[in-house]
Amino acid sequence: MHKKVRNLTEGNIQSLLTELTIPMIFGILGIIAFNLADTYFIGKIGTVQMAALTFTFPVVTVINSINLGMGVGTSAVVSKAVGQKNNDLVRRLSTDSLTLGVLFAITAMIIGELTIVPLFTAICADSTVMPYIIRYMRIWYAGAPFVVIPMIGNNAIRALGDTKTPSMVMMFSAGVNIILDPMLIFGYGIFPEMGVSGAALATVISRGITFCVALYVLAIREKVVSMQGATLDKILSAWKTILFIGVPNAVARMIIPIGTGIITGLISGFGHDAVAGFGVATRLEFLALAVVGSLASVIPIFVGQNFGAGAFDRIHEAIRLSQRFVVFYGIGVYVVLSLIARPVAMLFSSEPAVVDVIVLYMRVASAGYAFLGILQIMTASFNALHKPVKGALLNLLQMIGIYVPMALMASKWFGLIGIFGAFAVSYAIIAAPSVLIFNKVIRRVEEETLLNL
Exposed site from 37, 281, 319, 436, fewest CB < 10 Å? Predict the structure, then answer.
């Protein structure tokens, strides 16, 4: 393999986590800029179109969650193989993760195209927004391979200890999307005016760039993609290993958009302005939590390699540092957002009712960000230790067991502020149990590992 493969089982832990996280921040900012560009330019067309885009968000996120689940499974098993210095296994797992991604992309494309109307009708999309949803999703589904495969490929690259390359590619892809969005949405120069369809087409073209680069890095630069010696038994064995972690992780990630879909349906009862405001606010939330998300993305890489090397003292220290960081960061974000909510909201909408919803969400929901960060770090660590079911169950409990029921009740008593407050409270409730459960799990894994030596 190439020299860019990074050994994370040696060196200062805090420095390594910082070095890995900083490029990921820029990469995630690229993804956020990608989504915010769509939100910004579609918002210039009208509230109905913005509401339509908000309805597509949970469905797109469910598909991406399945895909990211496979990506996390890939990252966990590949990083452990890197820690074990088993290069043949690294190649086998990297290659077969991509073939699994191809299979999923084709399946998502076919099923998605056939179920647009019944699916969005089920989440309360009415006849006003449905035509725009259809236009957007038909193009998005057609480009599904360009969306799906790079996510898995980028996770394989990160597992090798290289977070810079995927991040640079994501930033470049976001830049292309930002340029193409206004051209295709409004129709500049030789480009026709396509409205929401233009936003979807810009997404597909931009993701195509990441598709090409991910394949180049894995196949040409790192040389970890090869069908040499591949047999059906080996491929199925690799898929089983990846899916053992990928499926629970996908379920955990799917819980969030499924719950968001339920919440979106609940908010739709307050009107299109409320749905549009909620859609903008949740995208701004990704921006606010970019640093936490970046750290949670690199924790499985660090923990995975050290798990493979049996360096549990380094794992304990990394988790401790990460927990402390996300708590202080979450508190800081809450204070800042409370102060700047209104001017930020006015950048994305000129409708007073939409702005009010954005401000309300940013000032209420952000109170739970410190606790959300704890859960993300714990979930990522469970995956890296090949104990993904624990993390999935905690996410299920937070979203379906606490947040959704609490939001349903609070909406009747307090309206939108009750829904947004339920978000913060649900994370506050689940944070401490997630830490306690993780501590028990890692002690057990450490004991089992020592017994097998």
Answer: 436
